[in-house]
């Protein structure tokens, strides 16, 4: 009895170790239209001069997809714990249209962006490498204070909508988080897919 029970426990442990990221259960809803603002929401000078920006809160879908793009791996080959403990994702955005995402102990991937003609707060972005389709699409800034964070609503090339927040600090105040979560809910994003990335175990 004892032996069979411990065998079951061992099997369960092995199963949870080899199980990859579940992109299907982290799916967000289909892309919806974002209204074009009359004046820009985002101060681009601020964004382009802030290095790095952290990625403290987002939809699970965004976290998985950005991670897979940095790792250049299939979802089935990446464990859940790896993402939460080793991702340590950071962004660097430049006025020449280049964005870098760094994480997993110094891995770096580049994105090329192009501003939309009819919306200064929106740009298309394309990653590099064979797994670029994990995270390419159109990003709309829908909320910002121009000094500590901006909220990006993303319609990915697979026509799913997701979101993420870039911030100057690795943690956010409860007040800012509430503002962000309320905004995400108001856009129609599912609370069950909200997630946070911690930086306390990051080496750099
Ligand atoms: C942020 O900066 C943009 C561009 O300068 C400006 O139009 C917008 O009103 C600013 N928003 C806030 C909340 O400061
Ligand atoms: C844009 O600027 C960054 C930072 O200086 C640089 O690393 C990157 O190579 C540049 N990209 C292009 C396409 O010139």
TrEMBL record:
Q: Sorted alphabetically, which InterPro entries does this protein's record hold?
A: Calycin
Recorded source organism is: Orchesella dallaii
Superkingdom to which the source organism belongs: Eukaryota
The residues forming the signal peptide are 1-20
Mind listing the UniProt keywords for this protein, alphabetically? Signal
Record-given protein name: Uncharacterized protein
């Amino acid at each position: 009895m004892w032996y069979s029970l411990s065998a079951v426990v061992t099997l369960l442990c092995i199963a949870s170790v080899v199980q990859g990221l579940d992109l299907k259960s982290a799916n967000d809803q289909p892309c919806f239209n974002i209204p074009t603002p009359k004046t820009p929401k985002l101060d681009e000078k601020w964004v382009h001069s802030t290095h790095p920006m952290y990625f403290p809160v987002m939809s699970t879908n965004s976290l998985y997809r950005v991670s897979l793009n940095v790792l250049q791996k299939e979802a089935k080959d990446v464990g859940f714990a790896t993402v939460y403990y080793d991702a340590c994702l950071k962004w660097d955005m430049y006025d020449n249209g280049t964005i870098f995402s760094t994480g997993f102990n110094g891995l770096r991937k580049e994105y090329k962006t192009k501003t939309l003609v009819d919306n200064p707060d929106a740009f298309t972005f394309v990653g590099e490498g064979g797994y670029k389709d994990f995270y390419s699409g159109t990003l709309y800034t829908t909320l910002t204070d121009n000094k500590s964070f901006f909220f990006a609503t993303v319609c990915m090339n697979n026509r799913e909508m997701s979101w993420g927040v870039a911030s100057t600090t690795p943690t956010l105040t409860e007040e800012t988080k509430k503002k962000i979560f309320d905004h995400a809910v108001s856009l129609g994003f599912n609370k069950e897919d909200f997630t946070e990335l911690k930086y306390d175990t990051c080496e750099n």
